[in-house]
Amino acid sequence: MILGIVVIKYKPSYEVDLSGEKLGYIDxxxxxxxxxxxxxxxxxxxxxxxxxxxYPSYSFKFINRGIKENNEEIINYIKNTTTxxxxxxxxxxxxxxxxxxxxxxxxxxxINEIKNGxxxxxxxxLGIVEKYVQEENTSTADDAKNCLNQLKISKVTEYEKQKAExxxxxxxxxxxxxxxxxxxxxxxxxxxxxxxSGNISGRVLNTPVGxxxxxxxxxxxxxxxxxxxxxxxxxxxxxxxxxxMDGTVVFAGYSGSYGNxxxxxxxxxxxxxxxxxxxxxxxVGQSVSAGTTIGAVGSTGNSTGPHLHLEIxxxxxxxxxxxxxxx
Length: 327
Fold this sequence. Notes:
Layout: H1 2-9, E1 10-18, E2 21-26, H2 29-41, E3 47-51, E4 57-64, H3 71-79, E5 83-93, E6 96-101, H4 104-115, E7 126-133, H5 141-188, E8 193-194, E9 197-200, E10 203-206, E11 211-215, E12 231-234, E13 240-241, E14 247-254, E15 260-267, E16 270-275, E17 279-280, E18 287-288, E19 295-296, E20 307-314, E21 317-319
Antiparallel strand pairs: 1-2, 1-4, 3-5, 5-6, 5-7, 8-11, 9-10, 11-12, 12-20, 13-19, 14-15, 14-18, 15-16, 16-20, 17-19, 20-21
Helix pairs in contact: 2-3, 4-5
């Protein structure tokens, strides 16, 4: 009879105790232990491992049937006492972390996508490192791609600027070499500085620019299909020059082997031509005086270095400028 009363009024249960604190009752110890073990050993959501300060203890009890077990509440309480460590994969560039993803395969896939089509000379210095933290990663693969794309754009821009600067320096060195060759050629020719003035048809002519004579009127060269129809005065690129006397501009522009050329009519069938200009400062129809800077020395057209090609034409026929200037 007593046993019957006990069975009717009481039920078997387990009291759960954690660090001396009574958490409540559970109906099945084995189920609780199995759930807790599963949670501790689970590697879902990139969990590497979990640590718990202390496991609970269980005491078998007969409790009043009116008392309810609180299985879920107890296991959730125990879970909250654990510490989770997560494993992720950091994508680094030159030793600096740039993005974090969930798996090594995901990291390798993203790196391959970023490198696809990239100039082999551009090294992003990408690598993958395992990372252990106690906070969950909230970034996504798209976040990682966006971050690495920004890095890629930055590196490509830096590379292109560097190449442009190298090209600019090479071009400067090339120009200096051409100028040096021109000076050497003039030096070997033992020609002096070009100065002086003369006259034609009773009018005074002024030298358009100072410099060294690098090619005389009537000379032949492998660069030309006929004899030289003018006089070449070598000087620094960009040096300004003036007309030999007052006149009117009849042409100012590009013309085949002459490159940029200015043609000035002085009346009485006299014209002067100024070729290979790097810059032209006058226009057709403009009146110019002998003291006006009309252009800058260059190397456009058929030219091996900066110089002014001066032609003087009388009634359309080229004459030797040294009959009047640079004597």
